[in-house]
Amino acid sequence: MTDQQEQELSTSLDSSSSIGSSLSENNKMYNKLKRQGSRSSVLATRPGRSQSISKDSQKQVMNEDPDTKTWSRHKKHFFILSSAGKPIWTRYGDEAGISSLMGVIQAIISFFQADDDSVKCMNAGHHKFVFQLKDPLYLVAVAKTGESEAHLRDQLLYLHSQILSVLTSLQLTKIFEQRINFDLRRLLSGTEVFLDSLSTLFNNDHGFMLGALQCLRVSKTLRDQIGNALADGRPKDLLYAIIVSNGKLVTLLRPRKHSLHPSDLHLLFNMLTGSTTFRTAESWTPLCLPKLNSKGFLHAYICYIERDTAVVMISTNKDSFFELSDWKKQIVETLTSSGALLKLQQAADESYSASDIGIPALRHFIYKSKMHIQFTCPELEAPYTNPVNRRRLHRLYQRSHDRLHSKTRPLKLYYLAGEHESILGWITSSFELYVVFNATVPKSTVITSSNHLLRWIKKHEDMLFILNSPVF
Amino acid sequence: MSTATKDSPKGNANKDAPSLGRTSPMLSYFCVYNPTVGNKNDENNKEQILFYTAKKVVPLDVKLRQVGLAQALVNFTSAFSPSKSVQTVHTQKARLVFFQAEPNFWLHMSIELGISRYQIRDANGKLRTVTDYLDAELNDDAVEGILHAGYQMYKLLNGTFASVLPHDANTASLQAIRRLKNSIEEFFSDWIWKWDFDRLESMLFSSVFNGIPMQPILRQSYLKIHNITETIADDMKLDIKHLLVFNKDNASLIYHNPQLALSSVQLLRKLIVRLLERWSDMRKAEEWRRTANEEPVASKKDPKITSLKSLTKSFSQKNILSYFGSPSLKPTSAPGSVPDSPIASPEPNLIAALNVTPEIASDSSGTPSPAPSLRQGVFLSGLMKSTLHDSSSDPQHHRNVDIIKVYLDGDSDECNELSHQDACEDLQEYYFVVYKVCVVVDGKQ
């Protein structure tokens, strides 16, 4: 283990080795708050139980329930409850404190069900309440972010998939068939981290909205090198092998007939970002990939081979840990000797920005290649390094996506000129493109610049996307 | 979104059968309730339902359940959105709409979504009926606008709910509650069933947003009308507060008194449209009746009626007509002819709508009436209940002229000085007199 890793190991051991039970309780809460850190939610001190964390000296509240003043100031709430009304997970607040709210939700849902109807969505001022019923779970999102019902519903489905990935659908239905009042929190304990980090990721990652994955930009030769290292010496029960760097896909090895669904990959990436424990040592964990097979468990081997780069191996055999570990050593050796690993880390550190392309007035873009189900977007630079602007940009993308994909009136071309920036949305059979320009750019320039951008992307296609991943 | 229900395969349906039909969205139920009325602690308080109507008969416990659900939704959403509680609820099969007209008074309705049924062949080649609930066809703003429009119209004709019943209605007398219930029922029972949700989007500007078509006129004509209205206001003994002039054919606005707020003009125009419709319906019924009875009719002159007639004429007809003495308005030649829509006229036909404050209305002395046969206009609503006798017809063909009282926000002069939102709480009561001027071209009707 490198020095870095040792350091990280010691710090994580510190945080987890608790002295008194109250301390560990506080630590758990503290970690939970750090994970939940959506800066847009305004939090206030509650006398007697406050704890300041970061250099910002922002005080955060420990326990919340619908009675605290800050409850209505959060921009997006998520609730998961069982069909009997038992709380399972809530994004903000303590599960125990909101059980009455969950009861009300369950009553409302069952009221409509009695009439053979099902409630889908409610509007109140700026708030949207979206209900997703996935027996035996009910999922509710309450948002005043301006996101559309379709997006919120998508996010609820991702949360549901996350729960499935821990339990499998088979187990879930069986549990509730046997005991309808079962408290699912017992089975999920420890994995709420992932639900929390998923909620935060919705606001930062465009991949959920697009249903695609972001790839790291690396030269073709480097990618091929890594791919070759994977293709070599594959253990018998291996299903997938994935190299991830900084939340972006580098390359993956897959069976010829089964490609990995993007939502499964999102769950995997979320696992990596959601918990720091994977950084410290090799991990072996059972998990279910809902889109692949929602009924059974697979096993995942996760190990960080560089500062930000991890290798994830999915296997069908629960006893193959050592085999996979050996194979990982082999891969690391191959890559270090050729210097590929260092180059990879370098590439992960420097990402391209919009100004690198050399198109004036182009601020940011997202390009999704429909064929490869991957997308690329540059790093954010001024003015979007400011969180307010960044959020506005994110909402702008969401609004454009929503309008283009409207179920009743879908569009192919969409142009919105706003006060701060203008956006062009363009859908063809092979790609989806969203380009953001300065507010003052005339339409003709928008079109020529977008074409210019498309040419640039085409030229660099092999660097931006994974065109051929190794198969077996 | 669409949901598929597995029905038994239709026997003789062809491959790729076309749509099996479409049902329009229709009202499921509508209610007006106030949860503070009656015994608050009683869960099954039926007093809180001030009005309820549904497309089929519904037992009381179902009504209470629905109102209970409505309140539960309001409370649930206020926990997250204290400023604005629930407005619409989308369910798979219906749309629920809420509107809090006044503090604690709620208008609530449920609309069943339109259904489109069609058949497809699924993977096994079996025919399957798919039921699509057309959620996207019913626009949220439009259905909310319906409730707004209904309340505005009710307020125009009856004043606010709170004026009959105080907000915190614990102390309200049973009489007051009953009075309120009656007035609500009188208005809403007709009104709510008039809406065709299918054509909502085409009716948006006229019905939901109360748009006013304006009649373009020359500047000189506008000034002429302005002068006329000022002279009317000066000469008549009545205290006319506001005057509006509309085109009879399509009720487009020609002139309105600048002090009258545009929102009031919108509502008054709607009222006029209704009166016109009612009047023309009655005319048609009369025509039909007249052609059915071939007997000659003798006009019976009842002195009492004559005097009433002269009374009504005294403050309006001839005097007004003398002001409208432009050359194109020709008086009718044949006495006793029933005024009718003219075939052609160079000038638009006018309806003058007057708002008169109640105190002066009783004073009806006016100049003596001219020849009773001179008819150039007809009152659609007047200052007192009267029975106008058509001189050529038999006693059955009389028409009641009703009194219409309207409640408008205070004069806009006063409103402008204070903030618009909270200043005009008190409504002013007015009499609304509508006079329809008919131009009859010589000889023709």
UniProtKB/TrEMBL annotation, chain A:
Q: Where is the composition biased (Polar residues)?
A: 38-61
Which residues are in the FUZ/MON1/HPS1 third Longin domain? 362-461
**Which one GO biological process term can you cite for this protein?**
protein targeting to vacuole
Composition bias, Low complexity: 7-25
Q: Which residues form the FUZ/MON1/HPS1 first Longin domain?
A: 76-198
List where in the cell it is found: Endosome, Multivesicular body membrane; Prevacuolar compartment membrane; Vacuole membrane
Task: Kindly list the GO CC terms recorded for this protein.
Answer: fungal-type vacuole membrane; Mon1-Ccz1 complex; multivesicular body membrane
* Pfam families found in the cross-reference section: Fuz_longin_1 (PF19036), Fuz_longin_2 (PF19037), Fuz_longin_3 (PF19038)
SUPFAM superfamilies in alphabetical order: SNARE-like
Give start and end of each FUZ/MON1/HPS1 second Longin domain: 236-333
Keywords tagged on the record: Autophagy, Endosome, Membrane, Protein transport, Transport, Vacuole
Spell out the residue ranges making up region: Disordered: 1-69
The record gives the membrane topology as: Peripheral membrane protein
Q: Matching InterPro entries, A to Z?
A: FUZ/MON1/HPS1_longin_1, FUZ/MON1/HPS1_longin_2, FUZ/MON1/HPS1_longin_3, Longin-like_dom_sf, Mon1
Biological role = Required for multiple vacuole delivery pathways including the cytoplasm to vacuole transport (Cvt), autophagy, pexophagy and endocytosis.
Question: Which family does the UniProt entry place this protein in?
Answer: Belongs to the MON1/SAND family.
Kindly provide the name given to this protein in its UniProt entry.
Vacuolar fusion protein MON1
Source taxonomy: Eukaryota, Fungi, Fungi incertae sedis, Mucoromycota, Mucoromycotina
TrEMBL record, chain B:
**Which InterPro entries does the UniProt entry name for this protein?**
Ccz1 (IPR013176), CCZ1/INTU/HSP4_longin_1 (IPR043987)
Q: Where is the CCZ1/INTU/HSP4 first Longin domain?
A: 27-159
Q: Name one Pfam family in it.
A: Intu_longin_1
Sequence segments annotated as region (Disordered) = 1-20
Superkingdom per UniProt: Eukaryota
Question: What Gene Ontology terms describe where this protein resides (cellular component)?
Answer: Mon1-Ccz1 complex
One of the GO BP terms on file: vesicle-mediated transport
So what family is this one in?
Answer: Belongs to the CCZ1 family.
| Name of the featured protein | CCZ1/INTU/HSP4 first Longin domain-containing protein
